[in-house]
Amino acid sequence: MENLLVLQSGGPTAVINASLAGVIKGGFDHPEKIGKVYGSLNGIEGVENETIRELDIFKNEENLRLLKQTPASYLGSCRKKLPPLGSDDAFYDRIFEVLEKYNIGYLCCIGGNDSMDTTNKLSAYAAEKGKSIRVIGVPKTVDNDLVITDHTPGYGSAAKFVSNCMRQIALDTDVYKMQSVVVLEAMGRNAGWLTAAAALANDSELSAADIICLPERAFDADSFIKKVEEVSKTKKTIMIAVSEGIRDKDGNYIKENNSRGDKFGHAALGGAGKTVEGWIASELGFKTRSIELSTLQRCFAAGTSLCDVTEAFNAGVKGVEFAIAGHTGMMAGFKRISNNPYNMEIVPLPVCDIANFEKKIPDEMITADGFGLTDKFCEYARPLITGEPDLIYKGGSLQFAPKL
How far apart are the C-alpha atoms of 83 and 256, rounded to whole Å? Predict the structure, then answer.
């Protein structure tokens, strides 16, 4: 009987372990097909280094429930770029040597764009060498930038966090009579989905997002300052959300950090909010404060969306089902059936059409002036942040899964 191996890689989300719990549950649910369920520590590096652990502790339902509410990557993560096929057979031979040693017939890779690249390369290599292992991608990213899939687990909870931060900071700042500006910087790299979630902070009772700056629009400092000045004529508290990935018309990031970036060629972002804060204070003289949400956006498990947790878990379960059904080189993707009521299904999508592509916010979701989102975006995103899971606390502290 063949075994199942699961790994996690890339940046964590607040629900990445809900997907892990789904994969584990999917493995345990098919004892006629799957013998043991293993986890690789620190992604593909765990396979290479043979740091693989059996996940039997999650046959305990309480532990599995705790895993669903545990933030960060329970199995650890890595950011290892796999070599192009044909360039380093020794690396791939080592990976498949370990997989065969543990009799792995099913491999689930939980991650974002780069992890889908890993999924694609491993499945392609297996096919090239005539190996029967089935490799499935289970998506995650707060950036929501995977193509073809309607959305990605991790985004809904991070979007909920950004939206609620905007709402609560707006009230906190508004207690003073002076003209003031708050600039909130959100993650997202080259796609503005997470920053756009600030638009969900607005409703009939509260205007908590006045200006939203997205990487999908070239950032012009003069136009931006004019927009801030315009809003200041009607509001004493101005709330602004900016993406870490905003760029000028020449494609240069608006950021303080000029370091080289990571091994995938991603620029090291951060500081857009602080830069914009300086411009506002200098040009308009307003009291201005910037807030960088940083890792809180992706690890705040106490404020997750029930929709997001449920879908993340189901994506893991479905990933195993797709592998058992014979699929390989596929990702458990989301297809939206209806918006009102919200309904979606999880379907297998070719990972070769997903890896190394990037989904941006479409034009129809961005206002004409480029500083806001249309109702179409809010209709798309609102269902993803809804619902509150029943979380386990002890002494006021959120509880996590026991370590391996």
Answer: 31
Residue 220 has pLDDT above 70, yes or no: yes
Q: What's the whole-model pTM score?
A: 0.94
φ and ψ at residue 26, rounded to 5 degrees: -60, -35
Spatial distance between the Cα atoms of 221 and 228, rounded to a whole number of angstroms = 11
> Which tokens belong to 333?
């993707």
Closest CA to 383 of 354, 344, 328: 344
Cα 179 to the chain's mean position, in Å?
35
In the sheet that holds 134-139, the strands lie side by side as 52-54, 34-40, 2-8, 104-111, 134-139, 330-339, 342-350
Report the DSSP pairing between strands 330-339 and 134-139.
parallel
Query: Distance between CA atoms of 392 and 65, rounded to whole angstroms?
Result: 9
| pLDDT mean over 132-146 | 97
Please give the pLDDT value at position 55.
98
Separation of alpha carbons 287 and 159, rounded Å: 27
Active-site residues: which are they?
A: 143
Q: What is the DSSP letter of 344?
A: E
Contact 186, 242 (CB under 8 A): yes
63-86 per-position pLDDT tens digit:
999 999 999 999 999 988 899 999
Q: Single out the residue of 156, 234, 231, 235 nearest to residue 200, CA to CA.
A: 156
Which is nearest to 284 in space by CA: 203, 215, 224?
A: 224
What's the token pair of residue 364?
């129809």
**What digits encode the pLDDT tens for the residues 285-311?**
999 999 999 899 999 999 999 999 999
Amino acid at 197: A
Q: In angstroms, rounded to a whole number, what is the distance separating the alpha carbons of residues 202 and 199?
A: 6
DSSP result, 2-14: EEEEEEE-SS--T
